Amino acid sequence: MSLLRKKSISFMLQEKQMAGSSPGGMKKELGVFDLAMLGIGCIVGTGIFVLTGVAAAQHAGPGLILSFILAGIVCAFCALCYAEFASMVPVSGSAYTYSYATFGELIAWILGWDLILEYGFAASMVASGWSGYFQGLISGMGITLPTALSSAFDPANGTYVDVPAILIVLVLTFIVSRGSKESSRLNSIMVIVKIAVILLFIVVGAFYVKLGNWTPFMPFGFSGVVTGAATAFLSYIGFDAVATAAEEVKNPQKDLPRGIMWSLVVCSLLYVLVTGVLTGIVPYAELNVKNPVAFALQYINQNWVAGFISLGAIVGITTVLFVLLFGQTRLLYAIGRDGLLPKPLARLNPKTGVPANSTWATGVIVAIFAGLIPLRKLADLVSIGTLFAFISVSLGIIILRKSRPDLERSFKVPLVPWIPVLAVLTCGYLLISLPAVTWIAFLIWMVIGLIVYFAYGYKHSELSK
Predict the structure, then answer these.
(1) What is the pTM for the complete model shown?
(2) How far apart are CA 82 and CA 122, in angstroms?
């Protein structure tokens, strides 16, 4: 039963209070606006600038508008569950921490190891994507990197290391290490620029929408809309990162739920509007391109706006990478504090209140993966990690409502258990639709995680003492 030992919520809150009041503790500097910007920074990025075109051309056509609405509703079920947990357990670690209080240590470790995979792979792949956009931008200025330094290790194509990917990861890691307020302020500026560019596309593109391009509205049938929703769902995986910042929020019981929900509302609206304008400008069959938003503006001869869009895409992807790095550092900090990973990962910089060791460990590892290892074929590993986290959080709400109805909740999920059950079922459906190779890779990662736990974590766990 020691494998299922639970960390009580009251102890977590006491531990958090002691850490926050001690010299050099995490600084409570974030508000609702900062949290919403973190969520939007992670959710609106590669999805809106890349995914929309491919999903419309291959899966849903103009019906992708319905796909994003459907995916937003499903994500709202999960976001509501996150919001209740965040109001109840405002402690760093998000789904890992929630599972520690609900299911016990072994399940929490499995989920934490799962989230390490999710954040690490996602950050590495986004850094690789950023490198591609950046090289495309500078090539327009007549600057071309040597082939050997332009992409991850692939001697057959003459590439050995992706230098831009490594550099952007290290630069953003340095920014994250400067403190939560400073880094979130820069993130907010970049998010505002990104939203302004997206609004520019919506306003300019709206004048060129042809209603005929929306006919037929569902060329692949409703099943295509559902497939599009499954693809679109993975564009919304940003509010887990918001929850990781819990210990740096001024009023976490109220601000965390608001930050999570506001980010979801704003992002859903932007996705629906962009998809509507995009499919209204260009016939959906022609949107199977890597840069659909810029392509649409070139299609209507608005090249001056397309240049802004390309710049906005780079800024947008930068914010996604920033938030993923931020979330990974806070996750490692929480696991290290519990003793399941080496304690130095939980050491805070006395000046900035940031887990410096976790920050640089994350930055260096992500930079190595992004710079040297081709990861695009393993993209679904990010999806499987996210879906497992969503399922565990949703189940946790049902369990704690029955086992701990006395806990103070400043935010409550309505219609329990129905909304959490819907979240579990929809995420479960997406899980079983993932390819077999993804499951095999995921199970290998889990076996490695269990070896690490029994060789180190089980013996060094703070609860074992």
Answers:
(1) 0.87
(2) 20
